[in-house]
C-alpha cells in the first residue's frame, strides 16, 4: 500500500462507548425518577408484607382517621384498611399496566414493520391507525367495556388499543426516514436482505423515540386505568385500584380528606417519576 | 388552498365510513341486545321477539346498517329505545354542554400552552425556565381526575370561591356560567396545555437553532422580533397539528371531567346509553364524536397549510 | 504588526487582536476553538481567511459578530471596529452594529432564509431593524419596499418588484445567495463577512456569486472578509490572505505571495493538495498525512507538528509565534520555526504515476464485451406540480455508457444533473425505468433474486457522505462484515474477523479499528471504512459517488490516492462521480459531462479538458478556479 497510513484513530475523549440510555439514567432528573418509580413499584410488590389487613376485609369501623385502631392510614367508608387497599391498589395497577403497555407497543411495532413491507399494506395499516385514533380514548373505553363487561380485561384491552397506533405511527415515521439514509442503501447494495436490513440495521436506529415513548405511555396508562376506574368501567370493586380508591373517596373529600390523600399521592409520584425518566431519555438521545 | 382541502377530504371520508361500520358493529357485539334490555328481566321469549320486530332488529345487519345511515343522511335520528325522547333532542342537549366545555378547555390549552412554550424557550432567566419546566412536568404528572379532585378541594371546598360542579347554561347566565365552567375546563385543559407547551418549547428551540435565525440576528433584528416574527411562524405549524390531536383528547377527557363536576354533557348520555344498550343514542353519539374529531383534523390540516407556504404550493 | 505597518496605509477599520474562543464540550471540558488570532481589515479591502474544517475560521467570523453558539465564548483578545471594542458591547449596542456596520452572509443559502416569510418581508425586517439609526426614509413601509426592490436589482434578481412577494423555496440556490447578499448589504455596512458563501453552490453559480461580491466591493466600497476553504476562490477575489490551522493563524500576507511561495509547511501542503485542472490525467495528488489536531486536547508546540515533514523537537514543545518573515516591504508573517525550510520545498508536488493511465484503456477496448454497459438508461421520480398535475422529474434521461475492466470513467455534473441517481441505478439501489444494463455482456436490468446476489458481489458503491453512510449503531467491523455475511462463506467468526482485518489494513487502517463505532473516527477514516465495506465482496466495479466531496482538501488527496492504488492493485473498474472537474481529470481515463440527466460530452480525460467541444463543458472548465493564477488588480 503506497497511500499514507493514517495515524491511530482519533478516539474522542468522553465518548468512550457509553450508551446514551445509561448516560441518561445517571442524570439527576432520571435518578429522582428512578427513585420515585422504584419506591412505588416496590411498595406494590411487597404489599403482602407491608400490610397487616386484607384489602377487602371490613373491620366494621368506617372512616377511622389515620393512626387509630392499628389502621396506619385509617379506614374507608366500608371500614377497610386504607393502607392495604393502597398497597394492593398499586399492585393491581402495576399488573394491568405492565401487561398492557408492552403488548400495545409490540403490536404497534409489528404493524409498523408490516406496513414497511408493501405500500398497500401501508395504506391499510395507516387507515386502521387513523380509525383507532379517531375514537377519543375514554369513549373507546366505554365502548370496549360495554362489550366485555367491567373488569381487568377491558382496561388492558383499552390501554393496548390506545397504544398500538401511538407506537405504530412513531416507528413507521422512523422507518420511512431511516430507510432512505445512505447507510441503509449501502447495506442493501452490500447484499443484505430485506428482513435483515429492516430488523438489524434500521430498527435499532428507530429505537430512541420508542424508548422515550414507552415511558410516556406508561404514564398515560396510569391515567387511563385511573379514569376508567373513576368512571366505574374499570377493575370491579371490591378489588382495589388507585383509580377506584380515588373515586370512592370523592364524596368524602371535605369530611375525610385522608381518604383520598394516599392514592392521590401515589398516582402523582408514579407519573412524576415516569415523566422525569422520559424527559431524561429524551434529552440524552436527542443529542 | 381549495385544492389542498379537496385532496384531504377522501381519506377523511374513508375514516368516517369505516368508523360508522365499526360503531354499528361494536354495539352488535355487546352481549344481549336492546330488546332484551328493554323488555326487562322477566319478559317472555315472545314479547322480546315482538319488541325486536318492532325495532327492526330481526332484519339482516346490512339492512339495519343501511337504514341507519339512510335515516341519518335525511337528518332523522329517530326515537331512543330506552333513555326516552328523540335522539336528536338528547344529543342536542348534551352536545351544547360538551362543546362548551371542550372549547373552553381548548382556549385554555392554547393560552397556557403558548405561555409555557414561549417562556420556556426564550426566557433568559434560569429561574423562569425552571418554574416553567416544573409547571409543565407537574401538569403532565397529575392525571385530570386528580387535578379535578384537588381543584375542587382547594377552590370549591377550601376557599369556596368557585362552584364545585353543575352548570347553569351559557345563555341564561353567562357570568355565572363562566364560574361554573372555569374549574372543569381548567382540569381538562392542564395536561393538554402541558403537552402543547412542551412541544412548542422544543419547536421554538429548534427554530432558534436554524440558519435563518442566525441570518436575522446578523442583520440586527431585535430579540423580540426574532421570536414573534421569525421563529414563531416556523414553530407554529407542527404545534397546530398537535393541538388538533389534543382536541380529540379533550373530547374524550370531557367524559371524565363531566363525571367529576356533574357537567350534564354527552359523557353522561354515553354512559346511560351504553348500559341500557340504547343503540340509536350510542350509535349516533359515537359517530358524532368521530365526525367532530375528523373535522377538527381537516381544519388543522388547512390551518397548517395556511401557515406554511411550502405545503400550500405542493 | 502595528509596529511594522507602513504609514502610507490607512488606519484599520476592523482590528482583531489576540482573539481566543473556547467551547464547552458536552462532557464539560473546554475546547480551544480559536487561539490568539490577529486580523486587520481596512476600508474597501478584501481579505480571505482560509483553512480546513476545525481550523477555527468560521468560529473567528462568528466571534467578530459576537454570534457564537451557546457553548462558545470569547476568552481573550479584542475586536475593534473604528476603535469600539465589540467584545465589551451590550446586547442593544451590538444590535446597532450587526447588519448596520457589519453584514454577514453564510454558507448554506438553502437554509439561511426563513422559509415561511416572503423575500420582501425578510428584506423589510432588515431595513426596519435599523430604521432608527438610519435616515427617516426607512421608517416608511413603502420607502422600505422601494429600497428592497433596489437591493434585489443590485444583486441581479430579475423582475424584482414581483419577486418580492415570493417565498424562498421559489428561488434557486444561487438566487437565494444573492438575496442573502442583498440582506447583508441592505443597510450599507462597512464590512461584509462572507462565511463560505459559495461552498454550497455549483461551480458556474459560484463564479457568478464571486463576481457579484467583487463588483459590490468595488461599487459600494464595502470591505470584504471572505472565509473559505477553497484556495481557488481566494486567488480569484482577495488582496490578502490568512491561513488558519488548529485555531491559529499560521501565515498571513498578500495573496500572490502566500499562494505563489508559501512559507509555512501547512500552506505549502494545502496548496500542493489542491487538484488542478491543468494537471493531466493520472497525476498523483499530494496529501498531507494524518488528520487535523483534536482541539479538546491541549496543543503543545506547533499544532501542525505531527503532520509536518520538517518538524523537529522544538516544534513539538514551543508554539511558534506569528512573526514578520523576511525583510519584504509588504507585510508577510509566518508562525513557523522553520519557515520555508527544506522540508517544505521537498514536498512532492506532482508525482507522475508509474503506469501511464491513458495506455491501459486502449488494450482492453478490443477485448470482447465491456465489463459494464448501459444503453438508454432512464429514471423518473413522481412529483406533482401546482394544483396536483403530474409533473415527473426525469433524473436520468437516456444515458449510454461503457466501462472496461481496470478503467476509470469520470462523471462530472452539477447538483441536480442526475449523476447520483445514475450511480444508484448502476449499483441497483434503484431500478431503472427504461434502458438496458449489461454486466459482462449479460442483461441485468431487471435481475432475478439469484442474479442480483451475483451482481451485488460484482458491483459495489462508495458513498458521498461518510457520516450518513455508516450505520451509527454498528462497529466498523460489523459494517464491513455485513456484505461478507450476505455473500456467504464467512460463517466462521474467526475467518470473518481475519478478513475484516485484512480489508482494514488494505484501506490503511489498523485492524483494531474493527471494534469502534463510526463516531470515533474522523471523516477521512470513515470514508476508508466505507471503501473497505465496498471491497469486501471482492467486486470488479466500484461506483464512487462524490467520494471526497465531504472531505477536507488534505484528506481528499489521501482518499483519491487510496482509490487509484486499489484500482491498480485489484484491477478494479471505477466509476468516479464528482462535481469537481479537476479531481475527475486526475483520476479518470475517460470523462462524461452530465447535465439534465444526459451525457452532453464524453471523451478521453485530457482531450475533453484541453479541447472541449460543448459550450457547457467549456463553462464548467472556465468556472473552476485555479489557486495559482492570481488576478491582476482590477
TrEMBL record, chain A:
One Pfam family per UniProt: BPD_transp_1
Cell compartments where the protein resides: Cell membrane
Predominant cellular place of this UniProt entry's protein: membrane
GO-annotated biological processes: transmembrane transport
Keywords: Cell membrane, Membrane, Transmembrane, Transmembrane helix, Transport
UniProt membrane topology term: Multi-pass membrane protein
Residue stretches making up the ABC transmembrane type-1 domain: 90-278
Stored PROSITE patterns: ABC_TM1
GO cellular component terms given for this protein: plasma membrane
Family label: Belongs to the binding-protein-dependent transport system permease family.
Protein's recorded name: ABC transporter permease
Species name: Streptomyces triticagri
Taxonomic placement: Bacteria, Bacillati, Actinomycetota, Actinomycetes, Kitasatosporales
TrEMBL record, chain B:
Topological relation to the membrane, as annotated: Multi-pass membrane protein
Coiled coil: none
Domain called ABC transmembrane type-1: residue spans: 95-300
GO cellular component: plasma membrane
Signal sequence, renumbered to the chain: none
GO molecular-function terms, A-Z: dipeptide transmembrane transporter activity
Keyword Transmembrane helix in annotation: yes
Residue stretches spanning the membrane: 12-30, 101-122, 134-161, 181-200, 286-307
Subcellular compartments: Cell membrane
Keyword entries, A-Z: Cell membrane, Membrane, Transmembrane, Transmembrane helix, Transport
SUPFAM superfamilies per record: MetI-like
Keyword ATP-binding applies: no
Pfam families named in the record: BPD_transp_1, BPD_transp_1_N
Family to which the UniProt record says this protein belongs: Belongs to the binding-protein-dependent transport system permease family.
Protein name: ABC transporter permease
From TrEMBL, chain C:
GO cellular component annotations of the record: plasma membrane
A Pfam family this chain is assigned to: oligo_HPY
Matching NCBIfam families: oligo_HPY (TIGR01727), PRK10419.1 (NF007739), PRK11308.1 (NF008453)
GO BP annotation list: peptide transport
Protein name: ABC transporter ATP-binding protein
Source organism of this protein record: Streptomyces triticagri
UniProt keyword terms in alphabetical order: ATP-binding, Cell membrane, Membrane, Nucleotide-binding, Transport
Domain ABC transporter span(s) in chain numbering: 16-271, 372-621
Main location: membrane
Amino acid at each position: 500500500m503506497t497511500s499514507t497510513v493514517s495515524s491511530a484513530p482519533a478516539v474522542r475523549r468522553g465518548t468512550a462507548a457509553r450508551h446514551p440510555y445509561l448516560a441518561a439514567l445517571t442524570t439527576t432528573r432520571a435518578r429522582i425518577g428512578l427513585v420515585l418509580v422504584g419506591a412505588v413499584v416496590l411498595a406494590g410488590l411487597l404489599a403482602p408484607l407491608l400490610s397487616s389487613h386484607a384489602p377487602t376485609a371490613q373491620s366494621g369501623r368506617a372512616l377511622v382517621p389515620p393512626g387509630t385502631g392499628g389502621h396506619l392510614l385509617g379506614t374507608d367508608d366500608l371500614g377497610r384498611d386504607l393502607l392495604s387497599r393502597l398497597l394492593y391498589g398499586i399492585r393491581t395497577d402495576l399488573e394491568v399496566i405492565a401487561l398492557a403497555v408492552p403488548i400495545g407497543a409490540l403490536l404497534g411495532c409489528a404493524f409498523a414493520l408490516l406496513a414497511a413491507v408493501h405500500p398497500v399494506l401501508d395504506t391499510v395499516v395507516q387507515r386502521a391507525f387513523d380509525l383507532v385514533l379517531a375514537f377519543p380514548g375514554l369513549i373507546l373505553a366505554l365502548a370496549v367495556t360495554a362489550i366485555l363487561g367491567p373488569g381487568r380485561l377491558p382496561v388492558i384491552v383499552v390501554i393496548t388499543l390506545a397504544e398500538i397506533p401511538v407506537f405504530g405511527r412513531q416507528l413507521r415515521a422512523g422507518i420511512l426516514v431511516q430507510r432512505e439514509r445512505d447507510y441503509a442503501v449501502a447495506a442493501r447494495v452490500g447484499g443484505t436482505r430485506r428482513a435483515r436490513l429492516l430488523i438489524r440495521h434500521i430498527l435499532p436506529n428507530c429505537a430512541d423515540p420508542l424508548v422515550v415513548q414507552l415511558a410516556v405511555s406508561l404514564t398515560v396508562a396510569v391515567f387511563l386505568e385511573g379514569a376508567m376506574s373513576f368512571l366505574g368501567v374499570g377493575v370491579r370493586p371490591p378489588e382495589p385500584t388507585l383509580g377506584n380508591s380515588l373515586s370512592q373517596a370523592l364524596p368524602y373529600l371535605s369530611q375525610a380528606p385522608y381518604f383520598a390523600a394516599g392514592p392521590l399521592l401515589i398516582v402523582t409520584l408514579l407519573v412524576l417519576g415516569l415523566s422525569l425518566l422520559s424527559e431524561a431519555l429524551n434529552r440524552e438521545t436527542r443529542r | 388552498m381549495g385544492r389542498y382541502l379537496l385532496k384531504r377530504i377522501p381519506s377523511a371520508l374513508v375514516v368516517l365510513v369505516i368508523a360508522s361500520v365499526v360503531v354499528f358493529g361494536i354495539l352488535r357485539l355487546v352481549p344481549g341486545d336492546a330488546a332484551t334490555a328493554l323488555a326487562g328481566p322477566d319478559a317472555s321469549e315472545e314479547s322480546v321477539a315482538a319488541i325486536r320486530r318492532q325495532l327492526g332488529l330481526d332484519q339482516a345487519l346490512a339492512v339495519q346498517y343501511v337504514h341507519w345511515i339512510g335515516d341519518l343522511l335525511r337528518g332523522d335520528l329517530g326515537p331512543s329505545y330506552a333513555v326516552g325522547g328523540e335522539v336528536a333532542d338528547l344529543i342536542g342537549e348534551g352536545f351544547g354542554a360538551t362543546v362548551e366545555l371542550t372549547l373552553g378547555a381548548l382556549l385554555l390549552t392554547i393560552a397556557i400552552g403558548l405561555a409555557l412554550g414561549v417562556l420556556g424557550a426564550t426566557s433568559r432567566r434560569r429561574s423562569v425556565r425552571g418554574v416553567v419546566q416544573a409547571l409543565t412536568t407537574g401538569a403532565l404528572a397529575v392525571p385530570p381526575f386528580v387535578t379535578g379532585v384537588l381543584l375542587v378541594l382547594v377552590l370549591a371546598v377550601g376557599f369556596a370561591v368557585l362552584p364545585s360542579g353543575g352548570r347553569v347554561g351559557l345563555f341564561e347566565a353567562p357570568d355565572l356560567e363562566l364560574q361554573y365552567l372555569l374549574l372543569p375546563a381548567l382540569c381538562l385543559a392542564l395536561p393538554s396545555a402541558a403537552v402543547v407547551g412542551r412541544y412548542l418549547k422544543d419547536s421554538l428551540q429548534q427554530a432558534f437553532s436554524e440558519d435563518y435565525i442566525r441570518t436575522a440576528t446578523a442583520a440586527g433584528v431585535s430579540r423580540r422580533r426574532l421570536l414573534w416574527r421569525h421563529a414563531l411562524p416556523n414553530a407554529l405549524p407542527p404545534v397546530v397539528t398537535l393541538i388538533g390531536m389534543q382536541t380529540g383528547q379533550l373530547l374524550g377527557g370531557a367524559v371524565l371531567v363531566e363525571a367529576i363536576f356533574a357537567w350534564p354533557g354527552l359523557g353522561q348520555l354515553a354512559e346511560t346509553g351504553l348500559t341500557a344498550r340504547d343503540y340509536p343514542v350510542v350509535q349516533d353519539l359515537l359517530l358524532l364524536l368521530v365526525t367532530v374529531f375528523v373535522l377538527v383534523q381537516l381544519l388543522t390540516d388547512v390551518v397548517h397549510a395556511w401557515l406554511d407556504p411550502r405545503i400550500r404550493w405542493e | 504588526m502595528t509596529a511594522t505597518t507602513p504609514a502610507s496605509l490607512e488606519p484599520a477599520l476592523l482590528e482583531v487582536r489576540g482573539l481566543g474562543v473556547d467551547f464547552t464540550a458536552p462532557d464539560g471540558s473546554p475546547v480551544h476553538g480559536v487561539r490568539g488570532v490577529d486580523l486587520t481589515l481596512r476600508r474597501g479591502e478584501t481579505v480571505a481567511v482560509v483553512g480546513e474544517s476545525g481550523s477555527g475560521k468560521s468560529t473567528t467570523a462568528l466571534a467578530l459578530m459576537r454570534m457564537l453558539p451557546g457553548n462558545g465564548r470569547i476568552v481573550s483578545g479584542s475586536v475593534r471596529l473604528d476603535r469600539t471594542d465589540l467584545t465589551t458591547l451590550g446586547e442593544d449596542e451590538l444590535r446597532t452594529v450587526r447588519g448596520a456596520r457589519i453584514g454577514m452572509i453564510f454558507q448554506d443559502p438553502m437554509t439561511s432564509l426563513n422559509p415561511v416569510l416572503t423575500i420582501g418581508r425578510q428584506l423589510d425586517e432588515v431595513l426596519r431593524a435599523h430604521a432608527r439609526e438610519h435616515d427617516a426614509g426607512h421608517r416608511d413601509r413603502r420607502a422600505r419596499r422601494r429600497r428592497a426592490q433596489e437591493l434585489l436589482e443590485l444583486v441581479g434578481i430579475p423582475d424584482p418588484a414581483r419577486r418580492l412577494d415570493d417565498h424562498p423555496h421559489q428561488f434557486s440556490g444561487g438566487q437565494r445567495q444573492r438575496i442573502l447578499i442583498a440582506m447583508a448589504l441592505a443597510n450599507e455596512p462597512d464590512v461584509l463577512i462572507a462565511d463560505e458563501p459559495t461552498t454550497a453552490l455549483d461551480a458556474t453559480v459560484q463564479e457568478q456569486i464571486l463576481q457579484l461580491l467583487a463588483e459590490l466591493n468595488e461599487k459600494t466600497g464595502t470591505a470584504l472578509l471572505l472565509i473559505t476553504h477553497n484556495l481557488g476562490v481566494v486567488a480569484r477575489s482577495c488582496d490578502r490572505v490568512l491561513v488558519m490551522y488548529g485555531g491559529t493563524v499560521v501565515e498571513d500576507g498578500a495573496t500572490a505571495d502566500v499562494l505563489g511561495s508559501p512559507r509555512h509547511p501547512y500552506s505549502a501542503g494545502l496548496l500542493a493538495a489542491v487538484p488542478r485542472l491543468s494537471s493531466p490525467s493520472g497525476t498523483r495528488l499530494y496529501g498531507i498525512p494524518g488528520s487535523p489536531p483534536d482541539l479538546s486536547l491541549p496543543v503543545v508546540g506547533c499544532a501542525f507538528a505531527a503532520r509536518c515533514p520538517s518538524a523537529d523537537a522544538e516544534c513539538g514543545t514551543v508554539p511558534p509565534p506569528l512573526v514578520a518573515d523576511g525583510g519584504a516591504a509588504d507585510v508577510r508573517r509566518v508562525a513557523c520555526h522553520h519557515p520555508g525550510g527544506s522540508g517544505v520545498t521537498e514536498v512532492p508536488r506532482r508525482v507522475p504515476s508509474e503506469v501511464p493511465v491513458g495506455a491501459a484503456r486502449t488494450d482492453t477496448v478490443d477485448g470482447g464485451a465491456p465489463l459494464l454497459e448501459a444503453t438508454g438508461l432512464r429514471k423518473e421520480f413522481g412529483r406533482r406540480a401546482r394544483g396536483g398535475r403530474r409533473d415527473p422529474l426525469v433524473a436520468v434521461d437516456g444515458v449510454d455508457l461503457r466501462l472496461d475492466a481496470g478503467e476509470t470513467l469520470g462523471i462530472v455534473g452539477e447538483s441536480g444533473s442526475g449523476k447520483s441517481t445514475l450511480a444508484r441505478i448502476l449499483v441497483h439501489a434503484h431500478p431503472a425505468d427504461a434502458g438496458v444494463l449489461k454486466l459482462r455482456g449479460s442483461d441485468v436490468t431487471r435481475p432475478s433474486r439469484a442474479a442480483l446476489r451475483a451482481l451485488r458481489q460484482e458491483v459495489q458503491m462508495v458513498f458521498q457522505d461518510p457520516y450518513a453512510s455508516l450505520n451509527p449503531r454498528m462497529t466498523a467491523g460489523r459494517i464491513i462484515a455485513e456484505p461478507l455475511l450476505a455473500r456467504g462463506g464467512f460463517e466462521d467468526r474467526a475467518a470473518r474477523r481475519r478478513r475484516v482485518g485484512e480489508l482494514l489494513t488494505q484501506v490503511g487502517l489498523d485492524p483494531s479499528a474493527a471494534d469502534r463505532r463510526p463516531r470515533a473516527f474522523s471523516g477521512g477514516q470513515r470514508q476508508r471504512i466505507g471503501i473497505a465495506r465496498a471491497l469486501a465482496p471482492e467486486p470488479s466495479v466500484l461506483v464512487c459517488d462524490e467520494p471526497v466531496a465531504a472531505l477536507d482538501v488534505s484528506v481528499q488527496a489521501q482518499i483519491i490516492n487510496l482509490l487509484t492504488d486499489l484500482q491498480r492493485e485489484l484491477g478494479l473498474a471505477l466509476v468516479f462521480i464528482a462535481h469537481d472537474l479537476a479531481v475527475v481529470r486526475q483520476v479518470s481515463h475517460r470523462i462524461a459531462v452530465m447535465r439534465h440527466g444526459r451525457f452532453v460530452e464524453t471523451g478521453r480525460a485530457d482531450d475533453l479538458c484541453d479541447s472541449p467541444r460543448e459550450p457547457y463543458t467549456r463553462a464548467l472548465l472556465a468556472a473552476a478556479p485555479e489557486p495559482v493564477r492570481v488576478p491582476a488588480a482590477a
